[in-house]
Design brief:
Elements lengths: L3 E4 L2 E4 L11 E4 L3 E5 L15 E7 L4 H10 L4 E5 L2 H9 L6 H12 L6 H14 L3 E4 L29 E2 L22
Antiparallel strand pairs: 1-2, 3-7, 4-5, 4-8, 5-6
Helix pairs in contact: 2-3, 3-4
Length: 190
């Protein structure tokens, strides 16, 4: 049974206030990402487009692996395209929304497709955390690191993007980074 209760015309999401992420702010860590495809259903929020998201992560090789990669012409990066739900989760997790707010937006957009919303949203966040692509903050994100699309993190080297791929690394309203000096950030997956 879905963890939602009908109150008048509104649905209340049960368990979102008692989950261990309650009151916390999921936030992306520095990793190259961009949007692609056409917008799908999404909430009308700054920085949320409803488009799919793709990540680019540099591969790290030891000496032997580097030699094999050269021989076999292995790609120097991993590209991870997300499905619509994980793309929406990625866009929502900018450190300015609480876990409860993210659950509400995910439930509004995906309804029964994401039931039970609290468990599925937490599982998505946990999967991204395990891959070192997201962190969960106890306070609202203060822009200590860049979470903008199209930026190569300082600890990675990525080749320029092939224009034929139709990937949009441009900013949309809500993606802007304050101009304060950036500090060290959690590292994205290797």
């Amino acid at each position: 049974m879905d963890a939602a209760r009908i109150l008048g015309d509104e649905m209340e999401i049960v368990d979102k206030d008692t989950h261990h992420y309650s009151g916390m702010y999921p936030c992306r860590v520095p990793v190259w990402w961009a949007r692609f495809g056409e917008p799908e259903r999404h909430p009308n929020l700054a920085g949320v487009t409803g488009r799919k998201v793709i990540l680019r992560i540099e591969k790290r090789f030891n000496r032997f692996e580097r030699m094999l990669a050269k021989i076999f012409r292995a790609p120097r990066e991993v590209r991870r395209p997300f499905d619509p739900m994980n793309s929406m989760l990625w866009e929502l997790c900018n450190g300015s929304r609480t876990f409860e707010e993210i659950c509400e937006h995910m439930n509004d957009v995906f309804q029964e497709d994401i039931a039970p919303v609290v468990d599925r949203t937490a599982a998505g966040i946990d999967a991204l955390k395990r891959r070192n692509l997201m962190t969960v903050l106890t306070t609202e994100f203060t822009h200590k690191w860049s979470i903008q699309p199209g930026e190569v993190p300082a600890h990675q080297t990525l080749a320029p993007l092939d224009e034929s791929m139709k990937i949009d690394a441009g900013l949309v309203e809500g993606d802007e980074q304050p101009t304060d000096a950036l500090q060290d950030a959690p590292l994205a997956g290797q």
